[in-house]
Amino acid sequence: MLWQTFYSLLLLSLLFRCTGDESLPEVTDYEEAPMDKREREALYSAIQGFVGDSWNGSDLYPDPCGWTPIQGVSCDIYNDLWYVTDLSLGLVHENSLACSSSLEIRPQLFELKHLRSLSFFNCFISPIVIEKEEWVNFASKLESLEFRSNPGLIGKLPETIGNLTKLKSLVVLENGFNGELPTSICNVKSLKRMVLAGNLFTGMIPNCFKGLKKLLILDLSWNSLSGTLPSSVGDLVSLLKLDLSNNLVEGNLPQELGSLKNLTLLDLRNNRLSGGLSNNIEKIQSLTELVLSGNPISEDIMGIKWEKMGNLVILDLSSMGLRGEIPIGLTKLKRLRFLGLNNNKLTGLVPSEQLEALPCLGSLYINGNNLTGELGFSRKFYEKIGRRFKASKNPNLCQPFEMVMSESHKHLLPLGVKPCT
């Protein structure tokens, strides 16, 4: 136990003093923690700025890196001394440090020279603008920077974040940041994840992604970004996830999208994209999720060779003003689980038997079109899919009369589809 170790060391110290043997090393007092003094003072001052001066670390023995660490502070040893490597503020865990309503970012924070990860969760409630100058002090070490759910963080994202050349993960999620995105973020060539979603960013998406060859995730969703989708997006050769949903992006889909051979998710829903679907979409054969709903694409979708996209699991093309018939190529997508074609201008017959033959299909929405003819789905299909099938608001679409009249089938049939006469 700790007190036994301390007691043994104390006895040894007294023994050496009594014998006068000064050749042996002096025993270190356990009250002096093996942590760099300036590091500890900088950490405590920085934490006090966030949680209030009433916190003084007195309950941490022998230091925040020792036997009683605080949740959210991690350390590592450099030259036989403890230094802080990870600092997480906010009530992420039960014993995490809760931020004060009147917090401040003290300059001592930027004296933690070995810091690799820094995150703030629900800390900044009152309006505060982050100064840009000190961030360059983290340039040589910081690998992860996160601001999550901080509505008080306003103003522009500091352009000096572009100096953090070791940064691998930048997460700025659901804050109050506004203004244009700084082009300096494209200087961080080591980035693997860039999430700037749920803020108030405006202006155009910077056309500067050419050097981000390691980027795996780019999420700019839920902002007010406008202009066209930049062609340099096609240079993100390692990209797995691209989410630009719920913005004001307009214009055509760039041909360069077809270069993203590793992309598994493309979510562009609820923008102002137009000009039709690019045939280069079918070149992204790695896609498992393609969501383009809520864009005025207004095109006949028969021109896309959907059968080439055999990995698709989710395909949402709803509310796009699409014309023409339901492409037979869609019925070749054996892994498809969700198909949304609702609220378009589709015409022609529903390929019921082919759609029913899709082994994984669990959600099918074709409501709000101009489809015609008779639905040919079986009772087994309706039992499997339930209310995840909608076909209403197709004035010329009907259900077989014998299905409607059957008491055993009636409760399974989709609502809003008239019986055939």
UniProtKB/TrEMBL annotation:
Signal peptide start and end residues: 1-20
Main localization (coarse): membrane
One Gene Ontology biological process: biological process involved in symbiotic interaction
Localization terms from the record: Cell membrane
The entry's keywords: Cell membrane, Leucine-rich repeat, Membrane, Repeat, Signal
Cellular component aspect of the GO annotation: plasma membrane
Pfam families attached to this UniProt entry: LRR_1, LRR_8
Keyword Repeat: yes
InterPro entries for the chain: At_inactive_RLKs, Leu-rich_rpt, LRR_dom_sf
Protein name: Leucine-rich repeat-containing N-terminal plant-type domain-containing protein
Species this chain originates from: Eutrema salsugineum (Saltwater cress)
